[in-house]
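Extended Data, panel c. Modelled sequence:
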Amino acid sequence: MSIDTNPKPGRSEPSATSVLSHRRIAILTDGYSTPFVAKTAISLLRYRTQDVAAVIDAAAAGSTSQKLLDVGGQIPVVKALSDVPDADALYIGIAPPGGKLPEEWRPIILQALRRGIDVVSGLHDFLTEDAEYIDAAAGSQSRLIDVRRNRLKSTADCHRFRPGCTRIHTVGQDCSLGKMVTSLEIHRGLIDRKENSKFLATGQTGIMISGEGVPIDCVVADFVSGAAEQLARQNEQHDFLLIEGQGSISHPAFSAVTLGLLHGSAPDGLIYCYEAGRTHVKGLDDILIPPMKDQMEAYLVAANLRHPCKFVGIAINSRNLSSEQAIAEIERAESTFGLPACDVYRTGADKLVDACIGLRAEVLDR
């Protein structure tokens, strides 16, 4: 969903034109370069590597993004925006709980705007609601792009999707464990096999990577299902839709968005994502994650209230395991759940690509 196909200087909303036009991106993570908080930066470094000029983190200046965030190769980490003289955009590279923009970054953002550099943010603190940023952008003809800003106000109408449009939705045990990456890697695998596939972003990082989508966690509650349905409906000409998941069905804070996506996108198949060894809810460290079998049952019950749906695979985040332990975990998951399993980073997504192709054949035969 391209929200604005002709963005103007100053206030702006995301579009394939505005976001994907950037070719010399400086990613700002200064003081927040941890895997959990800087996950937007990590994914940009992985999926838009060729467009990233540098990462800004004063404490790690002189290093590389690979050393700092374990991705991006030799992309330099610099002390300040002035070290990237040809930057055409400054991307806010963090996704902290609550989506707050660090106040200490204000001078850096203002410097970018006064230099005529676009600033792109996926946080809940909108750049376009800050008078000082607006004035600076207007003076230099740069753009303020709030990826989460939207005007989506339609309820779902239980659309009957084209039978040939197979929708696969990633869901999981918790937030921030690889649902977007799993969707992207399966999509890439389908494209490699010449299948007609489309990745549908539902979060700020996915939109920054693909140039379009719906910032589902910033849609008014009544319209979440409608926004998800509209996104899928606008792309149902494709044979496969890989719909990025958000939160989890049992998450005390984010379950509403998870359910809205399930009912709005009406998936035919689900991929269950989990991080090996994770036992407590991210950000709520005293809350235990329910057993995976209980979660999977809840997902199936909720999804099938809207549309016939089943699990077709398991995606494991094995980042805290050795190679040998990861293989053992994959074998354990396949034995436990009776589904193909993999770590899309370590072992590739081929098993899940096969499962999606098999699901489409099954759906078409109904």
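The chain has twelve helices and 15 strands. This feature is highlighted in the accompanying rendering.
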